[in-house]
Amino acid sequence: MKKEYLPLLVLVLALATLGVLLFHRISLTEQTPIWDSFTYAQKAKNFWDTVHKFQFLEPQTWISPLNIEPTTRPPGTILMSYPFGFLDKPDEFFFRSVFLPIILFVAALWIIAKPYCITLKDEWLLVALCLAFATLPLFYHFEPSIDSRFASPTYWGLVDNFIASVAALATALVIRSVQEASIRLTFSGIITSTFCLFIKPSGGLVMAAILLVWSIYGIVKYKWQQNILIRKYLILSIVTFISVYGMGLLLAFKSNYFSMANIAYGKNAVAILKQELSINKDSLQLLIAQIHVSFGWHWLTFIFLSAIFSFWGISKQSNVNSFKVLPVDLISALGVLLIGLWFWLVGTDQSQIRYFFPFALICIILLFPRIKSLYSKISNKYFNIIMALLVFPMLLLLISLTSNQPIYLQRILGVNLTSGSLTNEIKQAKSLIENANKMKRDLTVYSLGTGYVTGVFGGVGLYEKLLHPNLNSFDFQYPLNWITESTFRFSEILSSDYLLIDKPIKNQLKAIKILKNIEVSDFVSETNLFHAWLSTANDDDAGLAVESETSLRLLKIIDKVKLDSALNQLRSRYKWRKVFLDANPVKWIDVETAKALIAKSYPVFRDIRFGKQFTLLGVFTNHTEDGLTIELVWQSLKDQPLKYLNFVHILDASKNIIAQADYEQDSAKRVVNKGTLWHDIVKIKTSKLNGAKAIGLGIYLPPSTSLVTDHGPSDWNKNRLLLNLDMNQSQ
Questions:
Q1: pLDDT band, very low/low/confident/very high, at 319 (cuts 50, 70, 90)
Q2: Long-range CB contacts for residues 706-713, cutoff 8 Å, separation at least 24
Q3: H-only helix segments in 256-356
């Protein structure tokens, strides 16, 4: 073997060893994809199901991968999650989410710095630097961990490292293309850059950053050039950027991926993220923790010292050459850094440093040739020491992968190699799935907490349903849903079969102290109060029973009437936020309240009977910034259980259903007396009202019972009232 290939072979063998140890470590887990990672698995399964259906069952059913649910997840993620077909076990998915970004990033480092290797010594230095940067902590965060020693910015199954490494590779290709005036490298870089858009929506900003880099490099290198070949290269490159970027953006905006609904959802989710996740956080402490587990103080120090030495070298050169050669890499890195910092700190949230990763890796690629050239000038006397220092973090990482101990080593490196934890909680969730299959129906769990442990528990049920949609499992609800402002909703709690407490308070004095605070000023206080209440409440009085307990306490709802009563008592004892009160209005009303509401209603929709069971005493609507609110006043005509569904159809001009806002009469399905009055509030988002001309109202009991109205505007043989949104309802 030729000596010049030996450094590359050593690099490949080192990465292969890393890959083997990573796969072995990851295979220890019993966890399933959760949260965002679950939606990537869901996207891949739906994609491969569509491919199978197109190939073997219904060839005419092919649809664009951008329009396959969930459309908020683009198809580029499948290349990382399940590129060769869907598998039930997610181990390979988790492995690729960790290892593939490392390989792509090292490839980018090699591509950008290889032309600067003149001697064999240079290549060995390049290998050492590649291995050094392959140990950046951001790549090594495995299972979501409850260990406070690991403030992980990501967990396996996410695509943030994937898009960051693809962005790094695209940057390396476009820089090499400028240096060599190669349209083929430019095209490869542009295609790779555009692919970022189909990994995450933020890929659009990554594309802009890479275009900025190419522009700066091109201007600095070729601004005085009159060569016709150089002009041809620049023109073709610009045309390629416009064509490929334009095509990518057109595909995205013409699909459901960049639909108005998805864009609105994304903006709303970011707003909720900023509002909810930044409460009561020490900004400086959070920033320090995030930086350590993303880049590591050891590597930040290394890059900082390299920059100091580099600037010192430039200042020495400037005395002679007066900056004839502009530091184009430093200028480009500064521009990309500012874009990334703005997107991270202003566009998203300080706690979400993972949004900064693509821009950070682009900056490393930009500075890497300078770093490599700087260290290649070190004398032979110190060269071996530098090589040892560069390789040392990789050795520590490999040692950490072979054993759970010592944990402090992971803390120093800023990594989280947790795998195989929370086995009891996973068994607890699987036991609930067994119960669901025994009961022959899907169950619903309402989780009080939104932390990692509850996410792992809920992921078991959701993933089981994804794999076996015809079998029973359990669904999962949180007070945090990324659509509306976070709060506990009684209707969601009462419609569930179980409550899950992630932090049962066993210290009664601590719980009592929380319960004594009457003011519930934010979502954190609200969450603490519900935990304290359920940790001290008499289970029998609240209609609850302990089903199982690990670090999580699973409570079965055995009497929804008792639970509803207990929840209403809880509401009456505290001063809540407006969002909580709006989400949990007083349902049961007296005669005077009913009269006041009826006075606001449309005359044509008063005193309408539904069969012999109910009377709609009045209905009226209010247009709000968020959409439409419908308020209804009901009365029971006899003693009976409220077991029906109220259907609410959003209709177009042809009376076709374009959306629905159905709800249960009463989540507790309590028995009410004749004459009982209640007040329903239905909120319909603006996104559901596009093209709406009327609202259809009715009462339905599955599977086929509908109650007939005695008068009022209606269709469906008087089974559906029609509330026209364009007419004056007083007529």
A1: very low
A2: 707/610, 707/611, 707/613, 707/614, 707/644, 708/610, 708/611, 709/608, 709/609, 709/610, 710/608, 710/609, 711/608, 712/604, 712/605, 712/608, 713/604
A3: 260-277, 283-295, 297-321, 328-342
Query: Six-digit token pair at 328?
Result: 């184009």
**Distance (Å, rounded) from C-alpha 269 to C-alpha 287?**
22
- State the Cα–Cα distance between residues 96 and 33, nearest whole angstrom: 13
Q: Which pLDDT score is estimated for 731?
A: 42
Stated as kind and residue range, the H or E segment containing 12 is helix 6-26
User: Is the pTM above the cut of 0.85?
Assistant: yes
Cα–Cα distance measured from residue 115 to residue 110, given in angstroms and rounded to the nearest whole number: 9
CA distance 484 to 477: 13
pLDDT tens for 247-263 read 999 999 999 999 988 99
Tell me the C-alpha distance between 177 and 186, whole Å.
5
410 pLDDT band (50/70/90 cuts)? confident
Alpha carbons 596 and 382: distance in angstroms, whole number: 87
**Tens-digit pLDDT profile for residues 496-509:** 999 999 988 888 88
Reported in sequence order, the residue ranges of 470-595 that DSSP labels E, i.e. its strands, are 474-477, 498-501, 544-549, 553-557
- Distances, alpha carbon 403 to alpha carbons 18, 136, 238, 399, in Å: 14, 19, 51, 7
Rounded to 10°, the helix 228-254/183-195 angle is 20
Interacting residues of 525 by C-beta distance below 8 A, sequence separation 6+ = 517, 519
- Give Cα 669 to chain centroid, integer Å: 35
Please tell me the chain's helix, strand, coil percentages from 3-state DSSP, rounded to the nearest 5: 55, 15, 30
Collapsing DSSP to helix, strand or coil, 460 comes out as: helix
Does the pLDDT value for residue 281 go beyond 90?
no
**Closest by alpha carbon to 459, among 425, 419, 434?**
425
Vertex 164: Cα angle to 158 and 167 (nearest 5): 140
Whole-angstrom Cα distance, residue 142 to residue 136?
A: 14
**How far apart, in whole angstroms, are the C-alpha atoms of residue 123 and residue 5?**
9
> What stretch of H or E contains 525?
helix 523-536
Asked if residues 133 and 145 have their Cβ atoms less than 8 Å apart, the reply is no
Give CA–CA dist 701/645, Å, rounded.
6
At 370, which amino acid appears? Answer: R
Listed residue (629, 621, 582, 585) closest to 600, CA to CA = 621
Comparing C-alpha atoms, which of 96, 82, 128 is closest to residue 109?
A: 128
Which residues on adjacent β-strands are paired with residue 122? none
The DSSP H or E segment spanning 701 is: strand 694-701
Amino acid present at 9: L
- 523 burial level (CB within 10 Å; 0-12, 13-18, 19+): buried
The per-residue pLDDT for 147 is 61
| 518-537 pLDDT per residue, tens | 999 999 999 999 999 999 88
Is 698 buried (19+), middle (13-18) or exposed (0-12) by CB count in 10 A?
buried
> What is the pLDDT at residue 309?
60
Burial of 405 (0-12, 13-18, 19+ CB in 10 A): exposed
